[in-house]
Amino acid sequence: MKALAWVLTAGLVVGAAEPPMPAWLDEDRKSLEKGEILPGLELLTEEVPEVPQEAADVPAPTSEEIAAAENVSPEVDEQYLNAYFGARPETFLVDPQKLLGSKDARDRESFLKYHSGDSQVDLFVYLFDGHQAIPSGVREEEVVERFFSEGKPAVVVYYYLGAPQKSDIYVSPLLSDTVSAPEQRRALISSVEEALEKPDALAQIEAFCVQLSIRIYWMERAAGLVKDEPATPVARRVKEEAPAKAESPAVLQAKAWGQRYGVPGGIMASALLIAAGGISIARHRARFRFPSFDVPPRLGGSHAAGIGAVISFGSTTQSPSSQRNDMPNYLGL
Questions:
Q1: Which of 22, 190, 191, 238 has the most CB atoms around its CB within 10 Å?
Q2: Domains contained in the chain, number
Q3: CB burial class (10 A; 0-12, 13-18, 19+) of residue 140?
């Protein structure tokens, strides 16, 4: 029991002992001596939250800058530049990137060939992807002047597949003096509007080429390449008509009477025929009913001995006045 009491007493003494006092660090002691630290300052003041440092006032980007950043297009790969701009193209559709399938490319080339055979101005279409851009080192006007100054006049179009509104149009030097820039722009705008009405890229380029081919015809007229020539007369055999035979005065008089009285006479004749037909039908359908009379007996007989006659009518469809003929053996003798 004494041992247990000593253990409990020792535990109480240890638990009641005060915690150790904090010790100063050498750095804090030096700061205290210099007056950089005031004891108890943290207890007397409230903690001030740190204010975040404001960022520099940077202006927000404009809508034009945002649109320009979004519309940044990759340039045409350098490996295709020589095929595009190295020489005058041998085909009317210039598509070294094979953006169109083989069948669609043949169809467009066939149409451009047909246009060339039917027009005094060729149409060349340089085909690019709608998201591409021509490198800044390439000047399209110089390309046209370099390769299309000689030979047949031409219209050159840089067409962007799927984005016809980005297309550009140029004319060869033979047309630039007679076809004004506003006329070129009107032809391009008209073709672009036709293309944008179509639902897909293939239908758009087809409509674009067809409309531009029509507009080139007016360029030909403005350049004096189309002249209104009178049509060459063609000799034709004239059919000789037989001379009309002279008609007699009686025939002429009959024709004149027919022209004058033919219609009224025809109406009157038709009315008479209808009336006669109606009367005939009415007579055919008529029925006569004769009364029966009792003859008083004579000398006890139904009639006198052979004196008189028996009246009878044989038909009910004929009137009594028409049945006047005596019938033989009317007495049955």
A1: 191
A2: 2
A3: middle
